[in-house]
Amino acid sequence: MWTLEFIGVAERARGKGLTRVLMSRIEADLSPSALFLTTADPRNVPMYQHLGFTVHRALEMDGLSISAMSRGSHLDGENVNSKVVAA
C-alpha cells in the first residue's frame, strides 16, 4: 500500500482534468498497489470519490475535518480506522 501525501493543482488550472492526469501518472508507477490518503479539506472529498476513492473514516480534530480514503482492490471492505493516526 502507498500513501499519497500531497498533490495539488493551481487554482487557475482547476476543472481541466489535471488531477486525473497526475493521479494516472502516479498510479502507473504503483499499479496494482492500493493507494491511501487523508485530506483535511472537505472540498477534496468529492473529487477523490470521483477518482474512485472511498472514505473509510471521517473525523474532526482541532477544527479540521479529516477524511481517510483509499483506492485499491485489497482494501475493499477493509476497515482502515486503525491506520488513521492523530498527531
UniProtKB/TrEMBL annotation:
Domain of life: Bacteria
Domain N-acetyltransferase: 5-69
Gene3D superfamilies recorded: 3.40.630.30
InterPro entries: Acyl_CoA_acyltransferase, GNAT_dom
Protein name (record): GNAT family N-acetyltransferase
Organism: Myxococcus landrumensis
